[in-house]
Write a structure and sequence with these properties.
The chain is mainly alpha-helical and 370 residues long. The chain folds into 2 domains: 52-169 and 272-320, f41 fragment of flagellin, N-terminal domain (Up-down Bundle); 175-268, no CATH class. The protein has 10 helices and 4 strands; from the N terminus they run αααββββααααααα.
Length: 370
């Protein structure tokens, strides 16, 4: 049937042209971006999956950086422990020298002074070693948790130990005890009986009873000396009795100091090279300290190895996830180039067919003219 009101051929050609034009635009967008999915309309499900994969990949990359930071932290701590180990070895060498019977007291005093200076250096290293502001070896940090994965449970703890001299069992006698005794002396001031009784009460009724019963049940010599000195000071410097509240407060202060494991440990574990006997006793403490440091270094080494393996695993996982995401969202250039050529041909052909359809309408006019 010949009609002029509706050009069906032209409409169909126009529809084909629009379809070819859309295919041409899609192919050009994919080829220019390199992505098969450029918006949700391209592949809604694929976009959702690839978005989750992208989040996973970025999180894992951050976790790998965290693990590398953890390795650096462990290396920093381990390096400082290496220095402490060398210092302990030197102190042990001095202790062996001091234990020798051919060494004079003057020589031992020099050896003891060097040992004390080295113990101070151990404390300095322990108190100043840090990573990004986090103290590592003074006992304040505890275990450091490293986030090593994309999930909340993916964590690795790096165990850090307090390696100050007291914690290692090689500290010096704590000056804080002397300060507390001085404070008690100033507060009691009412005579020998009051001063000595207050000091003994503080020592014997503290929160950690039993710490004064070393050396076969006798008071520690340092404490006996403190009591004697306090008694002498009180008898030589008589003054008006102080209120009971002052005595009680001073006792409480001393009791807290005595109750401190760190302070009591310092008295029990003091390194003393001033005599042959104490130098020999110090060897046992130094061996224990060296073993402690070695164990901590071994733990840090194990943490470094674990984190290195974790990084390798993360790298493998990221590679596999990236490959899987690529298969979902990346454009296949071979296929898209073919699709582009096809769309170009169809667009050109449909345009030509529109022209032909419009030309067919002109033939109706020839019938009218005749």
């Amino acid at each position: 049937m010949t009609v002029i009101g509706t050009n069906i051929a032209a409409m169909r050609a126009q529809s084909a042209s629009q379809s070819a034009s859309m295919q041409l635009q899609d192919s050009m967008e994919r080829l220019s971006s390199g992505k098969r999915i450029n918006s949700a309309k391209d592949d809604a499900a694929g976009l959702a999956i690839s978005t989750k994969m992208t989040a996973q990949i970025r999180s894992l990359n951050a976790a790998a950086r965290n693990a590398n930071d953890g390795i650096s932290l462990a290396q920093t701590a381990e390096g400082a422990l290496g220095q402490i180990s060398s210092i302990l070895q030197r102190i042990r060498e001095l202790a062996v020298q001091s234990s020798n019977g051919t060494v004079t007291d003057t020589d031992r005093a020099g050896l003891d002074n060097e040992a004390r200076a080295l113990l101070d250096q151990i404390n300095t290293i322990a108190q100043t070693t840090d990573f990004n502001g986090v103290k590592l070896l003074d006992g304040s940090g505890g275990a450091i948790t490293i986030q090593t994965g994309a999930n909340a449970t993916d964590k690795v703890d790096i165990a850090l130990q307090n390696v100050q001299a007291l914690a290692l069992g090689v500290g010096k006698t704590s000056s804080s005890i002397n300060s507390a005794i001085n404070a008690l002396s100033a507060s009691t001031g009412g005579g020998v009986a009051t001063a000595e009784a207050a000091l003994r009460r503080a020592l014997e009724s503290g929160t950690r009873p039993g710490y004064i019963a070393w050396a076969g049940g006798a008071h520690v010599p340092a404490l006996n000396s403190a009591i004697n000195n306090l008694a002498t000071a009180a008898s030589n410097n008589p003054c008006a009795p102080r209120p009971d509240s002052a005595v009680t407060a001073a006792e409480a202060t001393l009791r807290a100091v005595i109750a401190s494991p760190a302070n009591m440990g310092s008295m029990a574990a003091a390194i003393d090279l001033s005599t042959s006997a104490t130098a020999s006793q110090s060897l046992v403490k130094l061996d224990a300290a060296l073993n402690n440091v070695a164990a901590t270094r071994a733990s840090l080494g194990a943490s470094q190895n674990r984190l290195a393996v974790t990084i390798d695993n993360i790298t493998s996982t990221v590679t596999n996830l990236t490959e899987a995401r690529s298969r979902i969202e990346d454009a296949d250039f071979s296929a898209e180039t073919t699709a582009l050529a096809k769309a170009q041909i169809l667009a050109q052909a449909s345009t030509a067919m529109i022209a032909q359809a419009n030309q067919a309408q002109q033939s109706v006019l020839s019938l009218i003219r005749q």
